[in-house]
Design goal:
The structure holds three protein chains of three kinds. By secondary structure, chain B is an alpha/beta fold. Helix content of chain B is about 35%, strand content about 20%. In chain B, β9 (about 215-220) and β10 form a beta hairpin. Chain C starts with 19 loop residues before the first helix and ends with a helix. Classes of the chains: A mainly alpha, B alpha/beta, C mainly alpha.
Chain lengths: ~270, ~280, ~270
């Protein structure tokens, strides 16, 4: 990149040369045009009168939400317990299933790069691209409404996430250590246990706790499609316009999420 | 002329870092500040441009009282004080030129700097300085591609392009090899002489301080315990600054290399080309 | 070394947690929790059993999926999801820059810090769908509510990571710029921005990806995008159409992931 130009004895300095500058301007222009175009399309589908009315509506809604209906809190214990269970058990299932998938997906441990690895990668992408709510939607039609569908949904959604991070961790391990173990004459399984597992264990634990934290948040909505937890109650309260109950549930959700985030941060801190 | 009176700094942890320092630095004097880690050297120079807020006392640069200034005036006085940092403190992801030009930030408006449209005079000056330190061919390199000595030279350019009246130098040689350390110290000394600049140099290395400074101030536990010429640094003085130790190998004999008698010690500005070759060849 | 004394020394791998009491408490606690959680999970195995044929039906629906039957709706829904993704990512990131700067402890004054942190906490605590329910109430059905939802969620994600990145930056580089007499904005532009920029571009692309995936479910609660179509096809047991939609989503996510990796390398 030459951006120092000598012009009539003066050295002109520009941050970039002409072509790079041009490319940047063109990309900005294209990005802006894309944004404006998309906004235009959305704007066509929007009833702007509602939007302008929204602040008033919001004020009205907020007024109806106070004070929260504290009396209900005893009835929320069970839904919150279910929510936490969905997240925890779902994470456990996901973590257990993610290990073999990650092992097959990592370039340095997969049994076959041409056959097994693409399958493992497809499992990861498929699991990651489908939102847990869509998984729940499917599972509710299959296994019926309830906590069970929620657990499986969270599990299926999290396999991809855990496996992706885990296989990246496996690919980043120090090959020297593995080689040293292999040099002792260890079998393949022994190499894994002594050479690979100790290196990825902290990452593995960190990923599990991180995903658990995310899953707490995700499992608060599964009830909307019938998959158990506090979302069920929230949906009912909203459809029946019991706003004081709604506000209490929102507070409970915030509380749970903050606590889980705190726990997850503490545990990750302890591991690293 | 910099005049410091009763400068005191108590950190929020309760540590008293400076206990009423009095110090005058006349124009075009290169002064070295020595002392053990934690003596308050860094705090002294950071209190001068108020990167650290002093607790009490006054700091006046050519009759401008710095300690009472509000934000806009403080920025205006900061641009009159150049600062060179330990470990260079270049913005690593900016190019050499951007780093040097960042020394002009106090003089240009926000949009001008945001669009990198600095006045041509600034750019000329930046090239002149880079040429002076032998780095003008590196203008478009990113700062993190440079070696330690080169980075510190860019740091010197960044400080000098501010057109400062005073240079604050914080451990300029902390992470450089002995040879590069001497080159950098010599460069700072030469540039100060060329521009009639006064400088306060924090430095760990007593020998370098003796070689390149005309005055040495020793700091211990936030108090000045020595203030005098380099050749009066005796083992007794060093003991009072650093504590008991065998100092015989540290103190420079009078007959040793004297920076002022060397033929290339003060290079006039016009000779910058050969100077550049000399510096560029040694990095 | 005492070679002469011939005793057998036992060696066992040292446990991960040194304190025996803590180890047992954690182990038993985990076991107790698992038992309790599994015990209180009601599973209607009859219903599960009944549903299994429907599950196989769903799986077979993928071979082949039915793109044709609802093709127009799929195209409409997917393109609406894509517009929402673009607009919400841009708006969300634009807002999260000031919020993120305000939420960095090392550069923001305390009141600003707490204010911005609380915005981030609220935004991060609620799953997108919960936010969408409220925004649909306020702005009416359609993609606008979805855009507001995703923008708000983007603030929480991007603002928090930006704040953390600023808190982790090299303070010396920023201090050096401040010492030149730079104004606050110049300081941000020269001292802070170059340090956080590369990572933030990568995270922006990542958020684009997340926003697309989330936009696929907002339709379930009326927030626009492909979700409404998907929900309808599930409700009507049109598994082959649902399979088609799911495959389209997977394909787009894969495409986005691939191209964002490419773009990230180009930017760096």
């Amino acid at each position: 990149m030459m951006s120092v130009v000598v012009k009539g004895g003066l050295k002109i300095w520009q941050r970039r040369d002409r072509n790079a500058q041009l490319a940047i301007w063109v990309s900005w222009l294209a990005a802006t045009a894309l944004f404006v175009y998309c906004f235009q399309l959305i704007s066509e589908k929007t009833i702007w009168a509602f939007v302008w009315d929204a602040p008033a509506q919001a004020g009205d809604l907020a007024a109806r939400m106070v004070p929260p209906d504290w009396g209900l809190i005893r009835h929320l214990a069970r839904p919150i317990w279910d929510t936490i269970n969905i997240a925890t058990l779902g994470t456990v299932i996901a973590v257990i299933l993610a290990v073999p998938v990650a092992y097959c997906a990592a370039r340095n441990t997969t049994p076959s790069v041409t056959l097994v690895r693409p399958v493992a990668l497809f499992i990861i992408v498929a699991s990651r691209s489908i939102n847990s709510l869509i998984w729940a939607l499917m599972l509710v039609t299959i296994v019926g409404p309830g906590v069970f569908a929620g657990i499986i949904a969270i599990g299926l959604r999290s396999i991809g996430f855990c496996a992706k991070l885990l296989y990246e961790a496996i690919e980043e391990i120090d090959e020297g250590q593995v080689e040293a173990v292999r040099a002792t004459g260890a079998t393949g399984a022994q190499v894994s246990v002594y050479g690979i597992v100790p290196q990825v264990l902290p990452a593995f634990a960190g990923i599990s706790v991180f995903r658990w934290d995310i899953n707490i948040r995700e499992s608060t909505v599964l009830g909307l499609v019938g998959a158990g937890g506090i979302g069920l109650e929230l949906n009912a309260a909203i459809t029946q316009l019991h706003w004081t109950q709604v506000s209490l549930m929102l507070l409970v959700i915030i509380g749970t999420v903050i606590v889980s985030e705190w726990v997850s941060a503490k545990v990750r801190h302890a591991i690293i | 002329m910099l005049r410091i009176k009763g400068l005191t700094k108590r950190y929020r942890t309760g540590d008293l870092a400076l206990k009423g320092i009095d110090l005058d630095v006349p124009d075009s004097q290169v002064m070295a500040l020595i002392g053990p880690s934690g003596a308050g050297k860094s705090t002294v120079i950071r209190c001068i441009n108020r990167l650290v807020e002093p607790t009490a006392g006054s700091v006046a640069l050519n009759d401008t009282e710095i300690t009472v200034l509000r934000s806009a005036d403080l920025r205006r006085v900061r641009r009159r004080i150049g600062m060179i940092f330990q470990e260079y403190a270049l913005v690593e992801r900016l190019t050499v030129m951007e780093n040097v030009l960042s020394g002009r930030l106090g003089y240009v408006g926000f949009w001008q700097s945001w669009l990198r449209r600095f006045p041509q005079s600034d750019i000329d000056e930046a090239f002149r300085l880079l040429e002076r330190v032998g780095l003008d061919h590196m203008a478009d390199k990113r700062a993190d591609e440079l070696s330690g000595g080169q980075r510190q030279r860019v740091g010197i350019c960044r400080a000098l392009i501010q057109n400062p009246e005073l240079l604050l130098v914080d451990e300029p040689t902390a992470s450089l090899d002995p040879k590069t350390s001497r080159q950098i110290m010599r460069l700072i000394k030469e540039l100060c002489a060329e521009r009639k600049l006064s400088a306060i140099i924090n430095i760990h290395d007593v020998m370098l301080a003796q070689m390149f400074a005309e005055r040495i101030v020793g700091l211990r536990l936030g108090e000045i315990v020595y203030d005098g010429p380099p050749n009066e640094l005796t083992p007794a003085v060093l003991t009072s600054i650093y504590g008991e130790e065998d100092w015989s190998a540290t103190i420079r004999k009078a007959a040793d290399e004297d920076p002022d008698s060397g033929k290339d010690s003060v290079v006039p500005f016009e000779r910058s080309l050969s100077d550049r070759d000399r510096l560029a060849g040694l990095t | 070394m005492s070679i002469s004394i011939q005793t057998t020394r036992h060696w066992k791998k040292r446990p991960l947690i040194q304190r025996a009491s803590l180890r047992w408490t954690l182990g038993l606690g985990a076991a107790f929790y698992l038992a309790l959680a599994l015990g209180t999970t009601d599973v209607n195995w009859n219903r599960v059993w009944e549903g299994l044929p429907r599950g196989t039906q769903f799986v077979t629906a993928f071979f082949p999926p039915d793109f044709a039957n609802r093709w127009d709706e799929i195209v409409d829904g997917i393109s609406e999801s894509l517009w929402m993704t673009v607009v919400s990512t841009v708006v969300g990131i634009a807002i999260s820059i000031p919020v993120g700067i305000g939420a960095a402890r090392n550069i923001a004054p305390a009141p600003v810090y707490y204010f911005c942190r609380s915005i981030l906490t609220v935004s991060r605590s609620f799953q997108e769908v919960i936010l969408a329910i409220f925004f649909v109430k306020l702005f009416g059905f359609g993609p606008f509510a979805g855009v507001v939802t995703l923008s708000f969620a983007t603030i929480g994600f991007y603002g928090k990571l930006l704040a953390e990145d600023i808190e982790d930056m090299d303070a010396a580089q920023a201090e050096a710029v401040r010492a030149t007499g730079a104004s606050w904005l110049q300081w941000i532009n020269f001292g802070v921005q170059p340090q956080v920029m590369p990572r933030m571009i990568g995270l922006g692309l990542y958020r684009l990806d997340i926003n697309f995936r989330e936009s696929a479910v907002l339709g379930i609660v009326g927030g626009g995008g492909i979700g409404a179509t998907l929900n309808t096809s599930f409700e009507r047991y049109e598994f082959d159409s649902a399979a088609a939609i799911v495959l389209v989503i997977i394909a787009i996510v894969m495409l986005a992931e691939y191209s964002s990796g490419y773009l990230r390398r180009w930017v760096q």
